[in-house]
Amino acid sequence: MERMRTRKEHPTGPAPTPTPAPSIPPPRWAVRAAQLITLLALPTGLWRLAMVCGFPSGYTEAGFVPFDTPGSKLWMLTLSVACELLALLSLGLVRPWGETVPRWIPVIGGRPVRPLAAVVPAAAGALALTAIWAAMPLWWTYPHADLTPTGRLLVGLIYQPLVLWGPLLGAVTVSYYRRTKGSRTAHTNTP
């Protein structure tokens, strides 16, 4: 009799595996903060890309010479792409792919993300970014002989928002940790 019920309920075979309980949605402020992070790195990346294309971007003729080499251009291009990709990773802390690996990724696709696997690098990144950009508000107190006055103002303005990157990432990371801390024990038995 039990078998017949199973067949009626699941005519194509055995019962499907239960889906995990829906996760707690991130707070709206965390989603907005993660989205803002992706925009913070954009102005500096575009500024460096302009330099890669040969535009002095506020540097004097002599100040631009070190940046007008193939090695420098490759470095600036790599740095711009890497910064934006790292900024985009913050979205994983507020999107479903930050809790379950997307299915299209080979081998591990569809598996749950262990919360600490996201929290530890994100927290380390938040601390590092906070330390790296902490002195940026002092930009105008230092001489910049290699920049034109307009370039000095432009560079100072486009780099100032990066001061927020570390603290915002830290706040979003804490939010992610709080939302997923209950699932840590569920993932300990996952292969």
From TrEMBL:
Statement: the UniProt record of this protein carries the keyword Transmembrane: yes
Q: Which intervals of the chain are annotated as region Disordered?
A: 1-26
Compositional bias of kind Pro residues: 13-26
What UniProt keywords are attached to this protein's entry?
Membrane, Transmembrane, Transmembrane helix
Q: Which residues cross the membrane?
A: 36-59, 74-94, 115-136, 156-177
Could you list the residue ranges forming a coiled coil in this record? Answer: none
Name of the protein: DUF3995 domain-containing protein
Instruction: Please name the source species.
Output: Streptomyces globisporus
